[in-house]
């Protein structure tokens, strides 16, 4: 639901932006979840949170692609699709990401 408005809002800077960066950020919710931690042999409880993985222009700070996932999702599954969606509309000269991405 968010993918198309994000892409459309980034198009005005298409001619300016050529360098991009990817990262993720977590957002806490009001809901609590429980799980059994096999490593420590006990049940644990914590707030549930969602993760947003955006691809941003380095110069303009515009978000060109983003994916929202659950708290247990791996960042690596979102990297390639975000690069592909950005490359459809932008000429990518440089791409920066941390070790969470391949």
Structure description:
The mean pLDDT is 85. Helices cover 22% and strands 44% of the residues. The chain contains two helices and five strands. The longest helix has 14 residues, at 76-89. The chain is of the alpha+beta class. A hairpin with a 5-residue loop joins β3 (42-57) and β4 (63-70). It starts with a helix and ends in a 5-residue tail after the last strand. Strands 1, 2, 3, 4 and 5 form a five-stranded mixed β-sheet that branches.
Describe the structure using short key phrases.
102 residues; alpha+beta; 2 helices; 5 strands; 22% helix; elongated
Summarize the structure.
With 102 residues, the protein is an alpha+beta fold.
Layout of secondary structure:
Elements: H1 3-10, E1 19-22, E2 25-37, E3 42-57, E4 63-70, H2 76-89, E5 94-97
Parallel strand pairs: 1-5
Antiparallel strand pairs: 1-3, 2-3, 3-4
Strand coverage percent: 35-45%
**Cα separation of the termini:** 26 Å
Low-confidence stretches: none
Give Rg in angstroms: 16 Å
- How many strands appear in the DSSP assignment? 5
Structural class from helices and strands?
alpha+beta
Count of DSSP-assigned helices? 2
What is the chain-wise order of helices and strands? HEEEEHE
Q: On the 0-100 scale, what is the average pLDDT?
A: 85
What is the total domain count? 1
Shape: elongated
